């Protein structure tokens, strides 16, 4: 008799496939007063959770079920002809990255090699902040601003909706943490 391994997890009565809702690496009130507990409860607890739940519903029983988040993003980006799972998958990744890019008492000017690269590629930390802020505030509609290390050079790029550097042409999987100021 064959025994079936059950790998499904049951969260609040709904079936969860392979992608988990990753909690921020700090308490939900740890970013106060810059970001309130209510914001984290809503943005992580409802918004980010919604992307995870919807993605799991979409991939259940399909060939994407059981694949890593990165693989799901690349497969569903489908070279720009995006499949319905792409938005949820990429937004899960983007939000995880966003939470992990912040920490209590974080922000400010970096040091060491990162600062050297910033000075080399942007002229100064202040210029980077200017360029990053401009990218974030001039993105039409919803989207993201990113600091990427591409072809041995730091660059600021912006993307619309769920698009992220994993699928931006010629961008490699090297990212640097950056605390967005709001
Ligand atoms: Fe969001």
Write out the CATH superfamily name of the largest domain.
Iron/manganese superoxide dismutase, C-terminal domain
CATH architecture of the largest domain: 3-Layer(bab) Sandwich
Estimate nothing, just give the exact number of structural domains. 2
- On the 0-100 scale, what is the average pLDDT? 86
Distance between termini?
Answer: 59 Å
Largest sheet: 2 strands, antiparallel
**Count of helical regions:** 5
Percent strand equals: 5-15%
**Number of beta strands:** 4
Helical content band? 40-55%
Q: What is the CATH first-level class name of the largest domain?
A: Alpha Beta
Q: Keywords for this structure?
A:
single chain, 182 residues, alpha+beta, Helix Hairpins, minor pseudopilin epsh fold, two-stranded antiparallel ribbon, 40% helix, disordered N terminus, disordered C terminus, binds fe (ii) ion
Write the layout of secondary structure elements.
Elements: E1 9-11, E2 14-16, H1 37-59, H2 69-77, H3 85-100, H4 112-122, H5 125-138, E3 143-150, E4 153-160
Antiparallel strand pairs: 1-2, 3-4
Bound molecules: fe (ii) ion.
Question: What do these coordinates show?
Answer:
The protein is α+β, with helices and mostly antiparallel strands and 182 residues long. The chain has two domains: 29-100, Orthogonal Bundle (Helix Hairpins); 107-182, Iron/manganese superoxide dismutase, C-terminal domain (minor pseudopilin epsh fold). The chain is built from five helices and four strands; from the N terminus they run E-E-H-H-H-H-H-E-E. It has helices spanning 37-59, 69-77, 85-100, 112-122, 125-138; strands at 9-11, 14-16, 143-150, 153-160. The strands form two sheets. It has a two-stranded antiparallel sheet. Strand 3 and strand 4 form a beta hairpin. Helix 1 (37-59) runs antiparallel to helix 3 (85-100) and helix 2 (69-77) crosses helix 3. The chain is globular and about 50 Å long. The chain binds fe (ii) ion. Residues 43, 47, 95 line the site of fe (ii) ion.
């Amino acid at each position: 008799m064959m025994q079936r391994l059950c790998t499904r997890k049951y969260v609040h009565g709904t079936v969860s496939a392979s992608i988990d809702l990753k909690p921020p690496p700090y308490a939900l009130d740890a970013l106060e007063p810059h970001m309130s507990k209510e914001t984290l409860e809503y943005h992580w607890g409802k918004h980010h959770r919604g992307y995870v739940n919807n993605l799991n519903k979409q991939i259940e029983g399909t060939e994407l079920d059981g694949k890593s988040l990165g693989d799901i993003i690349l497969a569903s980006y489908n070279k720009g002809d995006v499949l319905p799972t792409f938005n949820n998958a990429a937004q899960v990744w983007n939000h995880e990255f966003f939470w992990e890019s912040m920490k209590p008492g974080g922000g400010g000017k970096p040091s060491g090699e990162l600062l050297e690269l910033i000075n080399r590629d942007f002229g100064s930390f202040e210029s980077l902040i200017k360029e990053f802020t401009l990218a974030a505030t001039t993105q039409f509609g919803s989207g993201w601003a990113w600091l990427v290390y591409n072809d041995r050079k730091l660059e600021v790029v912006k993307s619309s909706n769920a698009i992220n550097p994993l699928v931006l042409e010629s961008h490699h999987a090297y990212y640097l943490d950056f605390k967005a100021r709001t």
